[in-house]
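Late entry, HDE complex.
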Amino acid sequence: MPPSKRKSASPVRNSEGAKDKKSQLEAFTSGAAHGLTTNQGLQIPDNHNSLKAGVRGPTLMEDFILREKITHFDHERIPERVVHARGSGAHGYFKVYKPMVQYTSAAFLQNPEIETPVFVRFSTVAGSRGSADTVRDARGFAVKFYTHEGNYDLVGNNIPVFFIQDAIKFPDLIHAVKPEPRHEIPQAASAHDTFWDFASLMPESTHMLMWIMSDRALPRSLRMMEGFGVHAFRFINAHGNSYFVKFHWKPKLGVHGLAWDEAQKIAGKDPDFHRRDLWEVIENGNFPEWELGVQIVDAGQEGALGFDILDPTKLIPEAQVPVQIIGKMVLNRNPDNFFAETEQIAFHPGHLVPGIDFSNDPLLQGRLFSYTDTQLSRLGSANFHEIPINQGVCPVHNFQRDGQHRQTINKERVAYEPNSLGNGSEFRVDGAAQGFQSYPDQIEAPKIRYRSPSFDDHFSQATLFWNSQSTAEKDHIVAAFRFELSKVDVPEIRQRMVDNLAHVDLKLATRVAAPLGIKPPDPKAAKGRLGFRDYRITNKVDEDPALSMLARPSGGIKTRKVAILVADGVEAGPLRRIQQDLIDAGALCRLVAPHLGTVNTASGRQLAVDHTFANMPSVMFDAVLIPGGGDCAAALCRLGDAVHFVLEAYKHCKTICAVCDGVQLLGTLGFNQGENPDLVSLPTAGVIIADARKVLDGQVSQNFMAAMALHRHWDRLNLDAIPA
Ligand code: HDE
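Prediction complete; structure with ligand written out below:
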């Protein structure tokens, strides 16, 4: 029977004749010019049906169109990065503020007129590619500068120190923090036995643990975190003079964190929270900016720091060596294709330009091997530099040839040097000082597998960090240690960890230990253990405000998200006034209601709704505005999701502004408009209660924005009592 006759009887889709197939194809393509082809350029007649023996028969092996498509699909994935698998990237530019000729000959650090293109990739460390953005972790902050002297990569983190002092411990560290091998649990989390087993046996990790337990590990946005080169590098000027340098990226929007409970909830509600945020601000023209800072130490003067500059578990306190701001980076273009750019970009701390060199930091030295090696397995060939995102803006000229995935078609006859058939001798560029010059470090030493005793202090800077935190930040660190260690099943590990912490600060260790069902911390017990060095340097500074997130400038409210809670009967006048003031200051306002569509205002107009309480919870916002209107307030008070929204925002220490009847929604928090209707601002930090009159003279907006600019009101009292 011809196929067309069996149409209605057959369950098989698309058993139409050839003419129908053609029109169906046209419906799926936008004209012959855009018709689909195979990878060989052959026009594909039908992208919906494979070649079969009869319409209901088996698929034919000879269907090369099907096989090509499926084969390509089968090979779409490349191995994810062993660490830093989850990342988000953006294009932008870097501009130096003034010539840095005194310290370095690097050309991209000389001319304030020149914009050097960059690509930045931010990442988490432990999780797989599909893991959530807001987990507790360090963040990678890797910048590729496409300079006309070659690509320069600054492959750093958002924390200025690291867990370990020697590269040989890196696989152990990562195996300990990654999911446990038995069951691959937990994903992207350090709160498990193997991580703390390792950490408690490696006292050198203590300083980094303090940072990881702080809110630095829970950034509010990738745009609101600092970046650090971590290791000491070298600047070298045209005279060959060398300086040690530590790199810093300072975000224009300040350094801000999430509440831990909030971070965990976001991981479920929007696992792409940071990636989405970065993408959206760039799409909307709110380009993120950082300033580049350097701490410079004259070579030969590093001994005066009081610690070993080569030890990556140490930072140079800014109170000791100030950061000089030397330039600015702006991210202003999203990638066209995530895989082609963000996934295939290949960073390497050894991608250097003349005027910048690395130091002998033993962690950095190991990295110099690892990054090329990892690209070979991840990107599949030694030609990964030919992938468009990895190509520089300057020409590449050498006699490396061929290999898998080679793109360049080398047309010259010679592929060797010296030669007389090509350009001749290309052994050296003209003049001995041109090209990359390694710093001629004097080395005459025995071959030795031994840790320098100058690395033996494991606690003094952890104490400096602790002493530099505000009360709220200390509370968060204690809570984070408690959370993580409470997830550790083996009590001996918990005990070992708090015994170590006693060497940072006994009060800290005692507070951490209190709810963990173990003995009080014992500093003496730690001393006998493997890896413990009974050696402590004296910090040159007791505190450093630069180590506290809260001591930094706030960065204002630009791009901060405000939820405006509405229902039918909302009083539109005061809402509009505050909304306009917020928009003028660069904040983003969204109307959240029980349903999409519109709500009716008290005066019978319609307001367009952006989100529902179900699809956009409070954790997606920085602040909440509850406008007036008796019916609106009553409706929201009856809605559990709306009440929960406010309680949760309060618990996460966000700024809340309630106007007139909107105060009713704060009832469960103990605020009652009836008691004092004239109050514009209550003593409770970040809760603003307003009447309509004060809205119209702009005072409420001012108070609201000033409170929002503080980011969070971490010192709110009685948070434990709030049911959210
Ligand atoms: Fe990395 N690291 N790392 N690392 N790292 C990688 O390279 C490694 C270290 C950092 O967005 C890998 O291309 C070793 C410190 C960032 O593509 C790998 C050691 C710092 C990124 C690797 C370290 C970093 C990586 C995995 C100890 C902060 C993501 C994929 C000796 C200064 C870059 C890749 C991107 C990625 C090895 C320690 C930062 C396996 C062996 C310290 C930001 O090669």
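The two ends are 67 Å apart (CA to CA). Will revisit in the morning.
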